[in-house]
């Protein structure tokens, strides 16, 4: 079970309160999408779940367990960023394997996981190549592959496609939906892109100024936006 719960979480950086008091339930195996204006606290929220930031107040639970003070590597999560730094001198296979090398997983098991990730991401024919020989979409898939091999319970994505051109974004959107289907884990996904939100999400969380403005299925939000703000974000005619 890998539901995520935030209970009355607050986060301040010095005198700047970014998240005043936020509670959120992300169901196990859901594809939950966070949207909201730049600076509203989306990345901060992901970083709190990942353990890259500690809340000023409140509790973070993953799979029912209080992980508020647990270090990131012990939380069973994996994060994919917008800017994915691949190692240029390493092959695709080694790039995917890299994060596993320090985990104590056996060589055989590592090779099996890399092969499985390559299959899921259609990178089988590119494993011996260097990142510079890949397209942007293939590179982003390598970055996702690094997460997959760690078998996380929860994937966190922070605008992973925003550096790609429109055609690639569309293709990767389809692939992300298939990925969610095939590996059956919980995904929390931040995006600026309304189409991504509407097509990928089981539930959309609309954030504004560190608060949840509305939460619901894409159809809920489209049909019954709680405010003009939400309507504007979802693109419904309110
Ligand atoms: P979003 O991802 O929605 O664009 P962020 O979570 O990155 O927003 O940022 C929310 C607010 O928190 C912004 O005002 C940002 O400047 C501030 N912030 C984020 N991280 C830090 C930090 N480490 N120190 C100080 N302020 C920060
Ligand atoms: Mg951000």
From TrEMBL:
Keywords: ATP-binding, Nucleotide-binding, Sugar transport, Transport. It comes from the Bacteria. One of its GO terms (cellular component) is maltose transport complex. The keyword Ligase does not apply. GO terms for molecular function: ABC-type maltose transporter activity; ATP binding; ATP hydrolysis activity. Residues 4-234 form the ABC transporter domain. The keyword Transport applies. Belongs to the ABC transporter superfamily. This is Multiple sugar transport system ATP-binding protein. The lineage of its organism: Bacteria, Pseudomonadati, Pseudomonadota, Alphaproteobacteria, Rhodobacterales. The chain holds residues 1 to 238 of 336 of the full protein.
